[in-house]
Design brief:
Layout lengths: L9 H20 L10 H33 L5 H24 L2 E3 L3 E3 L9 H25 L3 H28 L4 H27 L5 H24 L5 H22 L1
């Protein structure tokens, strides 16, 4: 799965992908500095949009390519389904265990994870929560680049970068809404973007130097993202009275990511 123009410059593209994930979240936080706030309706629509992009990226940019790659390595129809399905479940289990044992705090659900959470400053609990949320996105970017296939990498890179912008915006406003300063809000967005960038490099090195694990890695990233969408993004965007608006945002994000995947690949 190697495109001709993608060989020696793959590491450079991986660094670019890592930088995009870092900067997109921070870029989204910047407009929040000039705003006093936005309505809950707008927050839910933006969260739904991000969820739709991630959901479509999971399906079209991660799971489908993983199935095709697994099929190339096997004459059986059973083996690719087993590899991809199992890897997705492992990815979801990984995020579940992270949520269970790493102390963090959500804006609506409150504290989760290890009981030692009480010993951490509240802002660091928010940082850890958003970092857990963003890690699968960075992993997806790095895995896509590590495939050395522009058809796989380009839609993931563009789609994740696109959805990180409204995500950073909502996070910054939410932090400001619970009495944190504008500076702290932007710094949190930067910290969590850095986590996503590191995850991108992890995904890249894991797949580029062991191409045989690519189907597993793509499906693992897809399962991790699916867990985040189902466990956090959709429930949080539907907790208020704007569930229909959030669903509309999700559908727009899903269709946009599908469009990007078809046109860029």
């Amino acid at each position: 799965m190697s495109d001709s123009g993608f060989g020696s410059s793959t590491l450079a593209l991986a660094l670019v992908g890592s930088a995009v994930t870092v900067l997109s979240t921070s870029l989204g936080a910047v407009p929040a500095l000039a705003m006093g706030g936005i309505t809950q309706r707008t927050k839910d629509v933006l969260m739904g949009f991000s969820a739709g992009v991630m959901l479509a990226a999971t399906a079209f940019s991660l799971v489908v390519p993983a199935i095709h790659l697994a099929e190339e390595r096997s004459t059986s129809r059973f083996f690719p389904a087993l590899v991809v399905g199992g890897s997705m479940l492992v990815g979801g289990l990984f995020l579940h265990l992270c949520n269970r044992f790493i102390p963090h705090e959500h804006f609506i659900k409150g504290q989760e994870g290890n009981a030692q959470a009480a010993n951490l400053k509240r802002i660091w609990l928010f940082v850890l929560a958003i970092a857990l949320h963003n890690f699968p996105e960075g992993l997806a970017v790095g895995t896509g680049v590590g495939s050395r296939s522009m058809a796989i990498a380009a839609p993931i890179l563009v789609g994740i970068g696109l959805q990180d912008i409204p995500e950073g915006f909502v996070v910054a406003l939410a932090l400001m809404g619970v009495a944190y300063s504008r500076k702290q809000a932007v710094l949190v967005a930067l910290y969590t973007g850095l986590v996503e960038g590191v995850a991108a490099l992890v995904g890249f090195f894991a797949t580029s130097f062991a191409s045989g694990v690519l189907p597993w890695a793509l499906a693992f990233a897809g399962g991790s993202m699916l867990y985040v969408v189902s466990d956090e993004m959709i429930p949080e965007s539907h907790r208020q009275e704007y569930a229909k608006e959030a669903t509309a945002g999700l559908m727009v994000g899903f269709v946009l990511m599908m469009f990007l995947d078809v046109t860029l690949s």
